[in-house]
Amino acid sequence: MTQTPNYNLYKFDTTDKLNPTTLNGINSNADIIDSALADKPPLDHATTSTTYGLGTSTKYGHCKLIDNLTSSTLYQGYALSARQGYLLDQAKEDVANKVTTISASSTDAQYPSAKCVYDAIQSGGGSGGGGVPVGTIIQYDGNTIPSGYEEINGTEIYSTTEQKIGTWINGKPLYEKTLTGTLPSYSSQTLTTDVTIAENIDFVFIHEQFIVSSTGTVNILPKTSYFVSDVETNVTDNSTTGIIYGNTKVYRIKQNSTNANGYTYYARVRYTKTTDSAS
């Protein structure tokens, strides 16, 4: 008799006859096969236990799929599902569109790093912003405003261009403009000068008005309500006054004497617009 190389099973020649020796060989073969098969898993051997060996960081083995990212501990025999791999791939950093500087050529498809945003804020808004780092103390002598800055210390701003200064009581935006010009020469009859304020005026009133002589003398003009007819009142002889003329809602300055000839007039008018909505 000979034996197989792996499990030492007995092999019989065709000349061997059935006898106690050969029977012992057959029985021994059965025991060896039974013992060997006892440790072999079936073809379909999926299980909830660890009977057939777990895969580890150093060994191949059986693994159980997990479909979440909630574990912070390494467990032997667990593998991440393909679905979680896909989600991680979708969430990974888009390195190709990441930028480390912000400039005028930056696009909406790009996104900056946190350091890039911090640097931009510190430099005053990005490349060419002309600003200074946040928290920097700028020396100001009270006269010359540093380049790139605007004085906003609560003082009133007089401007010949329209300024949005607040909200009127009906919720509409309130605008202001300073009208200015030179009064014409009065001769022998009442002289009126009409000045267009703005387009689409709704409600308007004079906040303050005055005239200034060539020598610097300031004369405050009386504030009158605007007129709704062609009859103008509140103007006496030898006086100058300014009104809002109701029909056309222009600023009208009226002279009854030569006293204000050549004076410069200033009128701060405030108004709402028909194009704005009340709240």
General description of the model:
The chain folds into 3 domains: 2-38, no CATH class; 93-155, no CATH class; 163-273, no CATH class. The chain has helices spanning 20-38, 82-91, 114-122, and strands at 2-3, 10-11, 64-66, 78-80, 98-99, 111-112, 163-167, 173-182, 191-195, 201-212, 218-220, 240-245, 250-255, 264-273. With 279 residues, the protein is α+β, with helices and mostly antiparallel strands.
Sequence-ordered SSE layout with sheet pairings:
Blueprint: E1 2-3, E2 10-11, H1 20-38, E3 64-66, E4 78-80, H2 82-91, E5 98-99, E6 111-112, H3 114-122, E7 163-167, E8 173-182, E9 191-195, E10 201-212, E11 218-220, E12 240-245, E13 250-255, E14 264-273
Parallel strand pairs: 3-4, 5-6
Antiparallel strand pairs: 1-2, 7-8, 8-14, 9-13, 10-11, 10-14, 12-13
Radius of gyration: 48 Å
Kindly estimate the percentage of residues that lie in beta strands according to DSSP.
25-35%
Mean pLDDT: 77
Low-confidence stretches: 125-129, 225-238
Overall morphology: rod-shaped
Provide a quick synopsis of the model.
By secondary structure, the chain is of the alpha+beta class. It has helices at residues 20-38, 82-91, 114-122, and strands spanning 2-3, 10-11, 64-66, 78-80, 98-99, 111-112, 163-167, 173-182, 191-195, 201-212, 218-220, 240-245, 250-255, 264-273.
